[in-house]
Amino acid sequence: MRRPLWLFRYIDPFLVAILTTVAIASFAPAHGEGAVLADAATNAAVALLFFLHGAKLSPSAALAGARHWRLHGLVFSSTFILFPLVGLAAHALMPQLLPASLWGGVLLVTILPSTVQASIAFTSVAGGNVPAAICSASASNLMGLVLTPLLAGFVLSQRGVGLSGDTVVNILLQMLAPFVAGQLLRPWIGSLVSRNARLLKFVDYGSILLIVYAAFSHGMVNGLWHQVDAAELLRLALVDVALLAIIMALLTIASRRLGFSRPDEITIVFCGSKKSLATGLPIANVLFAGHVGLAILPVMLFHQIQLMVCATLAKRYAARRSMAVLETATAAS
């Protein structure tokens, strides 16, 4: 009997690692001195992660392609304006749909910067404007280090999640300060970091897994799985799906109404609809101390949903592109 490999085609292996970490934390949570060590290791890993990203990222690469200012403006508006507005509107219309902690996590999703690797990869597969995607995704992450904490002060505080000045400072110290340090040391260590991409990937994935383990350990100690049931998880998944669908539909309509080319449309849709798990979990770890386990669920769910949806959409864009090329070749012959 053949194995149904198609079932695993769109499953992110990293999500499997995250779910495994959740299971470990559920059965063997860190507590006492172990929890203190887990938190310390998490903070150190996050600082190292952003330091290495700072050392790797070329400022010229982040600023390249500035001539596509209309495209970048639409992507940034989606990432930091449209997303939060849609999230706030959903909360205002259906405040009782989810518990406050889950709504806090959903609103956190809306203010995160775009991903880099996934945005560029899907744009490339679909036949989009890859140089513009590199510029938009990189600049989004740079801007997000400052904008996300500032937006959190407005979006989350308006919905019952307290955000003090000390919290913003902690976020900036954990992520922006190491990133700036990496940028300053880039002339000396940048080439070394770039040559060792596997190290960066290991730190990237490892820091997220540490955050998940520490967060769910705190959650288990506080009775996490007694705070959320299957029906709430299903409603959360539907909210994430609806949020992604609304944004992608609006971006598609806007890019066509504004006269963008098909490659530019692809870049706008993929870069403007992604949210970064790597940035979201460290911020959630600071913002939602005490009930972070519930708050990171929307971020993790959105991450997997966006990968599955965009993988399917990228293949459809690529198929249409191949069909158009074939039709053009046939007409010319």
UniProtKB/TrEMBL annotation:
Native source species: Enhydrobacter aerosaccus
Keywords assigned: Membrane, Transmembrane, Transmembrane helix
Annotated transmembrane regions: 7-28, 73-94, 100-122, 134-156, 168-190, 202-221, 233-254
UniProt-listed Gene3D superfamilies: 1.20.1530.20
GO cellular component, one term: plasma membrane
Name of the protein this chain belongs to: Solute carrier family 10 (Sodium/bile acid cotransporter), member 7
Pfam families, per database record: SBF_like (PF13593)
